[in-house]
Amino acid sequence: MNSLYILLPISVLLLTIAVVVFLWAIRSGQYDDLQTPALRMLDDEGPESPASADRTSADD
Amino acid sequence: MSALLLDTAPGPASAENEARTCFHCLQAIPAGLELSVRLDEVDRPVCCQGCKAVAEMIIDSSQADYYSRRPIAVQPQIPHLPENPERWLAQRDYPLQPIDANHFESTVIVDGLHCGACVWLIERQLEALPGVHSVQGDLASARFSMTVASAAHQTLALGQILKLGYSPYPDSREETMALQRQEWHTALKRLGVAGLGMMQVMMFAAGHYFDSDGSMSADHRRVLELCAMLVTTPVLLYAGRGFLDGAWRALSAGSLNMDVPVALALTLTYLSSVINVFRDSGPVWFESVTMFCFFLLFGRTLELMVRHRVQGSADALLRLLPDRVCCEQDGQLLTIARAAVTPGMVIRVDRGARIPADGALLSDLACVDESLISGESGLIRRQRGEAMITGSLNLQASIRLQVTAVDSDSFVASLAAALPTRRARQRPRGRLEQTAERLASLLIAAVLILSLLAGLVWLSIDANRAWPIALSILVVACPCALSLSVPMALAAASRRAQSLGLLLVRSDVLMDLDAIAEVQLDKTGTLTTMGPTIRRMSLCQPPRLDSARCLEIAAALESLSTHPLARAFSAHHTGLIPEHFETDDHGISGFVEGRRYRIGQAADSGLDAQVFGSLIELEDDQGMLARFELAHQLRDGAGAMIESLRKRHLEVRLLSGDGEQAVRAVAEPLGIAHWRARQTPQQKQAAIARSQAAGQPVMMVGDGINDALVLSEARVSVAIAEGSGLAHSCADVILTGADLTPIAALMALGDRTRRVIRQNLIWALAWNLSAIPAAMAGWISPWMAALGMSLSSLLVTLNAARLMR
């Protein structure tokens, strides 16, 4: 039963990691749009817009 | 024509002229002006100091690539360089959204972009600036979003855009969007923290549950309790902060709201658990605290989601407006961003485009479709000097108008601005909810006093039992179940409503439904579909063409028209394209497969039919071929809805802005005895106010912007998703489909919800009222109290969840 003294802190640590990852995911905008990403895979067009395509060629 | 040109401009001179276009803006250089910039060892002529300054800046920052990148065919504008860039920027309010201490986000609409090279240039220039982390431009919407280190860096970046000859304008939509995003992030973070914390604390608590014979060592128990406390503390202080703040605000304002009992229950349970941990005896209820927090937040997050989706559609009308506007300046036609339009400007609106700003008509005559704003379905003629409304559709030749008001000052916006007054007005609270709230806060006060008294009494009887008994009372009396009973039922009902095709903007509308005595309906777009359909078709006698051919030709001709009635034919269009077509005030004519046809309003259709706009004739050179009778079609489920409303003994009335005949044609088949035609929004609003003043609360079903005022007056308002965005923003309920039957389902859902809430309240009250005396008598130990309270809350939640099915 003494393993509790190690396991409990580990569980709290894991929880902290989970919370930090979750907060990071929210902050990076992964939960901003819950609808379009599900439809985007059906979209044949690539995500590249003309403007950004322009930029990549400029970087060459 | 070309000979004339040759006479006046012989070969060499025209070559000279070509050389005399500005290197930067490609416009002609005025005679006698000698200005140039140097690039690749060659002097390039420019047309003005502005172009010179911009070109030099581009070359100096070694981005002369811009000139080779941009397409030859573009017609760039002469750069707009304000004399005092700082003042120009200071006159406008650019929103800046904090991401963290060193990152701020800003979105601007940039005017003057003409090709991908402009976007490239601005992105390159801004990214080279200190304090600008990233820039992303979009040519199609002319929007640039950038991340900067501070407000000063934002001003620097905007100044740079100005120096390049483009004009940055604030994006008014951005502010509300960013605000919504922030609200959503906060809600989600709190929900996530509460959910993860709840699961973990449950795990710790499970340790206690298995210790039925009390054989767990005191050390192990203590470690479990400490870990639970460690996790619960941030959950309460972070995730539960909304409740604590809300309660504090209410208390310091001298009032009681739903947050007060919630916050008190949370803090009291938490504090007594913490005390027990440090006393090293007695039970702890950390799992109850986290669970309570999570369930409450879950309900609130659902509500927030719905509210945001609805607010998003509120600016749907503004999104319909063109981003670019054609305006006249000093005799030249320029294309500028809509944000740059100011009152006094003369703008041009092409045929088929939406009018981007309020203005006075400068052309002699215009035909517009204002159905989105006024609800009137036909086309409306405007004479020179008359007012044109933002958002109306220009149906015929391109028109000129002088702008009188833009965006936030426009007629449409002022209608929208009239609405928030109602939002601020205190909503009459539902009886049940009010009772629950009052009882909960009374209970809290009573419990505090009771537990104190009981503790004192027991102190004199048996000092050892005083503390556990006082705690038991606190816990059993916690009005968790009571305060959960209403919000949980409303949240579950909102979910259910969504699957029925209803969005509940404010979920407690369900509580108001049983008070409703009268239902007022709008006609166009509500009882009838937005577009007209062909009701009847009659051929000339004897027929010269069969009906299918007539329909085909009519559809081909009408495909060229933007008249609202032309939509009736769009379903019959076979892809046939007429040639040499001409339009006049009453119709359209053209050649189909070599023969000339004309389609238009019937000559003998009379005044009423003209208002109605319903009789259309197809003719060829020999006269009439076929006659079409057009009408707005009743929406699916209109009859069934009215039938079900009548069964509930509700009075159904029809209010419409349309002409008498059109309204009668809809009202009579549906059996609506009370109807009024030609009602202005103000008259409709007054009619509803009269009914409500006479003690008949009204439910209003409408769609267009003209209904927005009316919707906001009614006790309960329902809007149709196909209608304009503005109506949604002030509706309590939104129909997401094209069908009207969900309104009947809404009434039934309201009944079920109120029943469930009543059951919940009775159960919660019974529990609290019976458990408190038992606890005072010392029959209930704290662990029993905690279990009972959790079970009671669970029961209430599960009962509410029945509504989701």
Structure summarized in a few sentences:
The complex is a heterodimer of chains A (60) and B (805). With 60 residues, chain A is mainly alpha-helical. Chain A has helices at residues 4-27, 36-40, 50-59.
Gap from first CA to last CA of chain A? 63 Å
Biggest sheet strand order of chain B reads: 17-29-28-27-18-25-26
Overall geometry of chain A: elongated
Give the overall average pLDDT of chain B.
75
Overall helicity of chain B: 40-55%
Give the number of DSSP strands of chain B: 29
What structural class do helix, strand and pairing data of chain A support?
A: mainly alpha
State the secondary-structure class of chain B. Answer: alpha+beta
Oligomeric organization of the protein chains: heterodimer
> Which sheet architecture does the biggest sheet of chain A show?
none
Could you explain the architecture of this structure?
Chain A is 65% helix and 0% strand. Chain A is mostly helical and 60 residues long. The N and C termini of chain A lie far apart (63 Å). Chain A is built from 3 helices and no strands. With 805 residues, chain B is of the alpha+beta class. Chain B contains 30 helices and 29 strands. A 7-stranded mixed beta sheet of chain B has the order 17-29-28-27-18-25-26, sandwiched between helices. Chain B has a 6-stranded antiparallel beta sheet with strand order 9-8-10-16-11-14, with no helix packed on it. Chain B has a 6-stranded antiparallel beta sheet with strand order 19-24-23-22-21-20. The longest helix of chain B has 38 residues. Chain B starts with a helix and ends with a helix. The N terminus of chain B is likely disordered. At the A-B interface, helix 1 and helix 3 of A face helix 6, strand 5, helix 8 and helix 9 of B.
Jot down its keywords.
heterodimer, A: 60 residues, mainly alpha, 3 helices, 0% strand, disordered C terminus, B: 805 residues, alpha+beta, seven-stranded mixed β-sheet, six-stranded antiparallel β-sheet, 30 helices, 29 strands, 50% helix, flat, disordered N terminus
